[in-house]
Amino acid sequence: MALRTEDLHVGQSHEVVVVDNLTRTQIVQYAGASGDYNPLHTDEIFATQVAGYPSVFAHGMLTMGMTGRMLTDYVGDGRLFGFGGRFTNQVWPGDTLTASATVTSIEQRDESSTVFFEVATRNQDNVIVFSGTASARID
Amino acid sequence: MALRTEDLHVGQSHEVVVVDNLTRTQIVQYAGASGDYNPLHTDEIFATQVAGYPSVFAHGMLTMGMTGRMLTDYVGDGRLFGFGGRFTNQVWPGDTLTASATVTSIEQRDESSTVFFEVATRNQDNVIVFSGTASARID
After folding, report:
1. How far is A8 from chain B (nearest CA, A)?
2. Interface of B with A (CB under 8 A)
3. If you placed Cys at B101, which of A114, B29, B67, B117 could pair as Cys (CB 3.0 to 4.6 Å)?
């Protein structure tokens, strides 16, 4: 069933675990899919011994992509038209991320409405790793 | 060489072909990496015969991810802190996408500066498929 405007109200929140125990393999898959082969994300030796990080870490866009998947699953195909935000903390292998969308406003127009969301993705320690906004057209 | 504030001025533009002839395989790779297995993106029969599209098409977040790669390659690791925009047109297999970032303002603060960009990604017909903004901290 597609989401309908009458199913939504301001303040309503939708929350999904978008990844449970992120693996290095998923980060490598994202490198392949995006073409972003920066070794900080895929080369443990480079990340730790050369760059001084505790381990490799996820591309910010992977976190944003998994958050975007929660949004498109929630609002339905072809309805998400705006999405953006800030990368506020690193995401590491082993992290479990929960992404949430909270309705901030609904603008009704004839047959459809534009719904605005506040978006936040948190890790298992409740630290926000991505926060932003999204907008969707709902019939 | 990392990008420096003195290398930048308002109105300056940076443009990169982020994908030349997008393949269905790259879309499938993105499905695997993001976990977004909506068959509109990967199942030709479903996309054409059930959903009525001319073919499968890319996830909006793949377009955004490739655009984000241009940005992080340009500004340098760990410096992109904000990124968002609108999905304005579908991206199809065979498309060639060119992403550009144009400096809109530079806020100098002590040792570093915050640089704001207007971002646009166009297909081979010069149609904008994604447009937005980004911000980065540059030393």
Report:
1. 22
2. 18-19, 26, 29-30, 32-36, 38, 40, 59-62, 64-66, 68-69, 72-73, 77, 80-88, 132-133
3. B117
Q: Extract the tokens encoding A106.
A: 């609904």
Strand order in the sheet with A128-138: A13-19, A97-109, A112-122, A128-138, A80-87, B80-87, B128-138, B112-122, B97-109, B13-19
Contact B36 A84 (CB under 8 A): no
pLDDT, tens digit, 9 for 90 and up, residues B78-118: 899 999 999 999 999 999 999 999 999 999 888 889 999 99
Q: CATH for A5-22+58-138, among 3.10.129.10, 3.40.50.1980, 3.40.30.10, 3.90.380.10?
A: 3.10.129.10
The Cα–Cα gap between A19 and A67 comes to 10
pTM attached to this predicted model: 0.91
Looking at CATH, the fold of the domain delimited by B5-23+58-138 is given as Thiol Ester Dehydrase; Chain A (3.10.129)
Partners of A69 on chain B (C-beta within 8 Å) are 34-36, 61
B35: closest CA of chain A, how far (Å): 7
Put simply, the answer to whether A87 touches B80 (Cβ < 8 Å) is yes
Instruction: List all residues 6 or more positions away from A45 whose beta carbon is below 8 Å from its beta carbon.
Output: none
